[in-house]
């Protein structure tokens, strides 16, 4: 409690006015538990009352008064409580006065505070403006509150956009309305999600470079939990994107090569080991036999084994050369000429079987491909179609090309023996895989064809039905320069 | 007298194995099939004639038309109706552990033998039954 003596107060002190006291009366009334308690301006005589001095500020004071008509006067604890109340009211009042004073002097304070605020804002804006990211802040209706130069570098545009939405901006810049549509969709998505959303956006800049941005938007809520704004970030990740794509390409390439390596190990194990086993057995038996006739017989058996070993070995070496030769030159080749050459080399067989070969290359007459591969592919597929014809049914072979965007698909269809694909789909193009009892069937042709096609990034697949026929499809990629 | 089937498209291997078996103490009678389909068709025909059914089958894996795995699929179906207990050995030049593992999924397979067959092993197989 701050004691105030009425008789020695300085002249510059003012007393409480009635109006100032009113808000406190009810408080006094209840807290002290004394009906009729009131606060009176200093220097007045409240009449038959006990009064406690009340210093509200160095310039302002009054008194807390309790009517003296209480039956037993004030007990010591009541007196103590009232003293404390008086002191509490004084502090509350002082606080209120100070606030009023501050407001009263706002003009004086503003200049200093404003300066400080400005410097703070400048500091933060400087950071936002210099960040190498795009920043945009939207109000609850998707109107721009802030954009940094990362988002819009032109100062005039940046000023224009504040308070506008994307539709107004798009109209102002003469841009396509779909840009605003997609921005709006993302805004609504972020609002709907109630949390951060992310997406990648790829576009072509004026100089033709592909730019990829990682964009993020997150909704902001005020203290009452109301949706108040959305903050958007964008970061250019073209370099990262390019790296990612390169990495993905490498992973694909590696996994293809790994598959090829496993295939290759199986090929070596199956196809090279078999003749080696025979040779070693032959040599073992030769070592134990003294019979000259048997020696001759066994030696004669070595020849086909060695031939087999030799041809398998050559095929493998060739397949490795194909795989390790990605730089092989493609040329624009006439499919008609390629077919012509193939049928000439198979003339005897075509004649013997009375085969008919039909061709339609109207929609894609030219294919960009290494010449020796295309020759080998056509030769393999057409000689297969002849070799595995249905007995008693002259082969009908139809060779066609069709264009699919920047790809060309070559199809070779026959009416031959066909293959049960349910059983053989997985093994169709494997080396040494043979489906029919034919003396010339070695199972190399399709393996080589597949190797050549895949080395150039293409695909090969097959449709077949037993006794009906087989169609092989080969997809050639990167054929854009063969457009008719 | 053992009844033996070779299901193998390699005539040189069959010739050499027969040659080694001929010096065995156990007599044998061998039939040859150059692919799985020829063998399974034959087995179907004689499924109820234990005298004709083989005691031992030597099955190659890599063959034209119907390879060893496809034969095993068909043979597994047929096996219960065969009036004889037959030992089936895969005899392959493959040294791939995956194929050895895969062969274990077939109850019909007695063992996986890697080519070449040694004289001692042949003697043991012929004497076993």
Tally of DSSP helical segments of chain B: 5
Radius of gyration of chain B: 14 Å
Strand content of chain A: 15-25%
Compute the number of strand runs of chain B.
Answer: 5
**H-E order of chain B:** EHEHEHEHEH
**N-to-C terminal Cα separation of chain A, in Å?**
103 Å
DSSP strand tally of chain A: 16
- Following the backbone from N to C, one meets helices and strands of chain A in this order, namely EHEEEHHEEHHHEEEHHEHHEEHEEHHEE
Structural class of the helix and strand makeup of chain A? alpha+beta
Estimated helix fraction of chain B: 25-40%
The oligomeric state of the chains shown is heterodimer
Most strands sheet of chain A = 5 strands, antiparallel
Mean pLDDT level of chain B: 89
Principal-axes geometry of chain A comes out as elongated
Could you explain how this protein is built, in words?
Chain A contains 13 helices and 16 strands. Chain A is α+β, with helices and mostly antiparallel strands. Chain A has a five-stranded antiparallel β-sheet with strand order 6-5-9-8-7, sandwiched between helices. The radius of gyration of chain A is 48 Å and the shape is elongated. Chain A starts with 13 loop residues before the first strand and ends in an 8-residue tail after the last strand. The model of chain A is unreliable at 1-13, 28-32 and 98-104 (pLDDT under 50). Chain B is globular. Chain B is built from five helices and five strands. In chain B, α2 packs parallel to α3. The longest helix of chain B has 12 residues, at 68-79. Classes of the chains: A alpha+beta (484), B alpha/beta (129). The A-B interface holds A 265-266, 269-271, 273-274, 276-278, 280-282, 284-285, 301, 304-305, 423, 427, 432, 434-437, 441, 443 and B 10, 12-13, 15-17, 19-20, 34-35, 62, 64-65, 67, 70, 93-96, 115-116.
